[in-house]
Amino acid sequence: MKKSLSLSVQAVYVLITALQLIFVPNMLLGMFGFEPTSEVWIKVLGIILLSLVVVYYAIIQSGDKNILKMTIYSRLLVVLGFILLVATGQAATPLILFAGIDLATAIWTWFEIKRV
Question: Distance between CA atoms of 11 and 14, rounded to whole angstroms?
């Protein structure tokens, strides 16, 4: 399979988010209406996301259609989780914007797979 442009875009988005969470977390949190924090957990999340970028890169390089499909399911899980957090009042509504990006790239990847 040809290398996935949609997963490449997702990887860049995750990379940017990870670096923001690691180096300027409160800027990112403020953009989406979340309270500033000095907790280390937000940076831990950034580091975990950074490791996900490495996995995405490996998937892109492999071109494995089955593994690429699994990224669709994992992104849809993120979408569902974010929607549930907002719906139950545990997170601010702007979190839906993050869900939208994951949903859009998951749908894009699905179309890429279907074209092959």
Answer: 5
Contact (CB, 8 A) for 1 and 68? yes
* Domain count within the chain: 1
Per residue in 80-115, pLDDT tens? 999 999 999 988 898 898 899 999 999 999 999 999
* CA dist., res. 69 & res. 7, Å (int): 11
Contact in structure between 116 and 65 (CB atoms under 8 Å): yes
Region label for 2, one of left (φ > 0), alpha (ψ between -120 and 50) or beta (otherwise): beta
Write out the residue range of the structural domain in which residue 19 sits. 5-115
- Tokens representing 112 are 């890429």
pTM of the model: 0.91
Burial (Cβ within 10 Å: 0-12, 13-18, ≥19) of residue 105: buried
Q: Find the mean pLDDT for residues 28-47.
A: 91
The two most distant CA atoms of the chain are separated, in Å, by 46
pLDDT on residue 49? 98
